C-alpha cells in the first residue's frame, strides 16, 4: 500500500480541518482500508465561544458521511471536556452515550458524532485516523492473532482486547491506553476490530496508517496468506 499524499494537493488546504478532509478522503479512496466498514477520523482544535472563552474541540467524522467523499460539514464539532469526562464514567448505556455526544456539539445542526468519538478524544495527538483495514483484521482474527501483531508492531502500538464498539470499548481504551503508551507509540490496535494511528499533523497520522497496514500486508504475503475478498460495503461507524 502506497501513500497517496501529495504536497501540492495538501498546500491547497487552508487549516487543520481542510487537511483533515484531505487525508480522510485519501483513506476513503483505498478499498483495502475502508471496504469492511467505513473507518473514521478526527482533529483536535480550539474555538472561541460566544462569551470570548477558548474551548478545546474535536472535529470527528459524523454519522452518515463516507470518508471518500467527506466535506468539512461532515465533521461533528464536539467539546473535548464532556467527552473526556464521559470516558471516566463507570457505566453508560449506548443510547445515553449517543445523546451525550450530541449534547457536546458546538453546532446543533451538525451531524451526530461517530460512536467512536470518545476513542478519538482520549488519544492525546491532534490528528487521529481509524480504519478497519483488511490486513489488520486478517492478522488479528487468525489463531494466535495477538501474538502475531505484537511480533510485527511491538511497542509502536497499544493493544486493546476485543469488546463490542460502544461505551464499554471507549471506557476500556481510556483505562488501558495511558498505562501502555510509550514514547515510541504511534497507534492503538483494537483486536478483531481495527487500527488507530495518530500524529501531530495530518501527513504523519495518515502515513503511519499506510506504513503499519503495509507491514501487516507484507507479513501476510510472506506467509502465503491473502486478505479476505472484499464484500459488500458496510455502514461504517
Ligand atoms: Zn472502528
| Spatial sequence of strands, sheet with the most strands | 3-2-1-4-7-6-5
Specify the structural class.
alpha+beta
Structure annotation, total helices: 10
Q: From the alpha-carbon coordinates, what is the Rg to the nearest angstrom? A: 17 Å
Question: What does the largest sheet look like?
Answer: 7 strands, mixed
Summarize the structure.
With 237 residues, this protein is of the alpha+beta class. 41% of the residues lie in helices and 17% in strands. The longest helix has 21 residues, at 202-222.
Protein model, in words:
There is one protein chain. The chain has 10 helices and 7 strands. It is α+β, with helices and mostly antiparallel strands. Strands 3-2-1-4-7-6-5 form a 7-stranded mixed sheet, with helices on both faces. A hairpin with a 5-residue loop joins strand 1 (40-48) and strand 2 (54-61). Helix 7 (134-141) packs across helix 10. The longest helix has 21 residues, at 202-222. Residues 229-236 have low confidence and may be disordered. The structure holds zinc ion (ZN). Zinc ion is lined by residues 116, 130, 132, 165, 193-194, 237.
Amino acid at each position: 500500500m502506497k501513500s497517496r499524499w501529495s504536497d501540492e494537493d495538501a498546500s491547497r488546504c487552508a487549516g487543520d480541518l481542510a487537511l483533515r478532509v484531505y487525508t480522510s478522503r485519501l483513506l476513503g479512496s483505498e478499498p483495502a482500508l475502508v471496504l469492511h466498514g467505513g473507518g473514521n477520523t478526527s482533529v483536535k482544535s480550539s474555538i472561541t465561544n460566544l462569551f470570548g472563552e477558548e474551548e478545546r474541540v474535536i472535529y470527528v467524522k459524523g454519522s452518515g458521511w463516507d470518508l471518500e467523499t467527506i466535506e468539512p460539514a461532515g465533521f461533528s464539532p464536539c467539546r473535548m471536556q464532556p467527552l473526556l469526562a464521559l470516558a471516566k464514567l463507570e457505566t453508560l448505556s449506548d443510547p445515553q452515550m449517543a445523546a451525550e455526544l450530541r449534547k457536546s456539539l458546538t453546532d446543533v445542526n451538525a451531524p451526530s458524532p461517530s460512536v467512536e468519538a470518545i476513542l478519538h478524544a482520549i488519544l492525546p495527538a491532534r490528528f487521529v485516523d481509524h480504519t478497519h483495514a483488511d490486513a489488520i483484521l486478517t492478522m488479528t482474527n487468525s489463531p494466535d492473532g495477538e501474538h502475531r501483531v505484537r511480533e510485527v508492531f511491538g511497542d509502536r502500538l497499544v493493544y486493546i482486547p476485543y469488546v463490542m464498539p460502544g461505551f464499554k470499548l471507549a471506557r476500556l481504551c481510556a483505562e488501558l491506553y495511558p498505562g501502555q503508551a510509550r514514547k515510541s507509540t504511534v497507534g492503538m490496535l483494537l483486536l478483531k476490530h481495527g487500527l488507530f494511528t495518530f500524529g501531530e499533523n495530518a501527513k504523519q497520522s495518515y502515513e503511519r496508517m499506510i506504513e503499519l497496514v503495509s507491514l501487516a500486508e507484507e507479513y501476510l504475503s510472506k506467509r502465503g496468506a491473502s486478505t479476505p475478498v472484499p464484500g459488500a460495503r458496510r455502514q461504517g461507524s
